[in-house]
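Is this the right way to post structure tokens for a design question? Let me know if I should format differently. Anyway, here goes:
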């Protein structure tokens, strides 16, 4: 099996996980980036206030997303881009939490994904003072990107996964997880099935 996955990164309007306001997606096939996408998101109603703190981080304000599609309207585009791939994110619990919370707030079923975390992978692969995305990405040879731009962050995440897989001599995500000692987790009905069988 080749190293295939979709890297994903969300920015949020406030400290609630449902407040996704931007997404970046990077598709990797056989260890190479083949496509990127990203767009602004109008957060679900009730979760659409923009905090000064979050705006200071990513630069997105309410007027930027006023004409953007709601989470409920653009989720099919996200699913179409991922096209059944395993997802990869840096501090993946946050990004998977965004998917779950935004779907719940929008009265949608949570989609099923397996996912891996490059923060965990970086800790198993590099010896660094910090494992924040810019530092881990630099260790992977991916430097000078626009941190907190969702597409750029997803590209950095993909670079860590690709570089680490070479370092661990792993040919696919499952092998990489096994040799590095990270877990592949899941959300949606996949996670429910795993929990039921445990």
């Amino acid at each position: 099996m080749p190293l295939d996955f979709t890297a994903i990164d969300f920015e949020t309007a406030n400290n609630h996980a449902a407040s996704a306001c931007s997404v970046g997606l990077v598709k990797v096939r056989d260890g190479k980036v083949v496509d990127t996408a990203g767009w602004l998101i109008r957060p679900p109603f009730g979760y659409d206030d923009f905090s000064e703190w979050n705006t200071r981080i990513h630069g997105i304000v309410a007027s930027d997303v006023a004409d953007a599609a709601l989470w409920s309207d653009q989720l099919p585009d996200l699913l179409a881009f991922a096209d059944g791939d395993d997802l990869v994110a840096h501090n993946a619990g946050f990004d998977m939490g965004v998917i779950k919370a935004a779907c719940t707030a929008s009265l949608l079923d949570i989609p099923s994904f397996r996912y891996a975390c490059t923060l965990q992978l970086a800790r198993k692969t590099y010896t660094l003072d910090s494992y924040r995305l810019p530092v881990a990405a630099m260790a992977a040879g991916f430097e000078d990107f626009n941190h907190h731009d969702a597409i750029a962050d997803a590209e950095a995440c993909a670079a860590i996964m690709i570089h680490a897989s070479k370092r661990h001599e792993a040919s696919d995500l499952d092998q990489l997880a096994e040799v590095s000692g990270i877990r592949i987790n899941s959300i949606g009905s996949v996670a429910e099935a795993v929990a039921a069988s445990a």
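Format looks fine. Someone answered above. Worth noting: The mean pLDDT is 95. The first strand starts at residue 5 and ends at 12.
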